[in-house]
Amino acid sequence: MAKQLGARPRIGLLGTGPWAGHTHAPALAGHPDVEFSGVWGRRPEAAEALAAASGTRAYEDADALFAASDAVALALPPDVQAPLAVRAAAAGCHVLLDKPVATTVAGAREVADAVGAAGVASVVFCTLRFAEPTASWIEEQAAADGWFLGEAHWLGSLYGSGSTSEYAASPWRREKGGLWDVGPHVLSVYLPVLGDVTEITAAPGPGDTRHLVLCHASGASSTATLTLSAPPEAAEAALTLYGTKGRAEMPRWDGALDAFGAAVDALVAAARTGVPHPCDARFGLRLTEILTEAERLAAAR
What is the pTM of this model? Predict the structure, then answer.
């Protein structure tokens, strides 16, 4: 049974890596309307350090953190996240998931089914859907008609020459590449604006680069080039829509900290009202389905 939220919901954190340390923990610790109830990590010493820096306590047992929390945020590799999210939902905790929810359709479906069975709220932290000004821009374009074409490229340089990013050490990113790391961001914009994906063409490019052509339920089509291997000089993330109103370019956004705070607010609102958020676990499942098919098609080329 889903936990009822008090005046200051207790939200715990699973994960102690750079993403948790730079975004999740400071956002939870600094949020005026929630209680940061604790940290669990696969490395107890890292959990102790992050908890101490954030003014909360560390847990050696994830189930103990679930018991002490009304909701949990997850900052873990996707296929570590999925089974823990299932356990959290079964314990009645509302879940704030990272993208992708899982890298297998079966894993993502287990999360979505567990959330539904427990009646807990869920939000998938697709940054562009919560950051400003991109969140407002997406809503504005989704409300407009007449879109004909979308064109996106997300050229990350995580594995480019001279990169010193701490995220480059992430094994799952190294294995799955830009399709799975930045692909969810592009899809999180395209789906609410152009409609669900009805057909996919995918081809490999240099390194981990993948080129996608998508047909959408609205009749529009879109393209996406996704990579983590671009030269640093070429790094850029851009998305443009074309239609009867002309051309609309997605605005730039600044960081993820405020966006994560907005995602926390969205989870709390969904838990209080019972109204699912558009970026819920079912949406996360759909992203995994699309990415899995794109991965299969690119590998077959």
Answer: 0.96
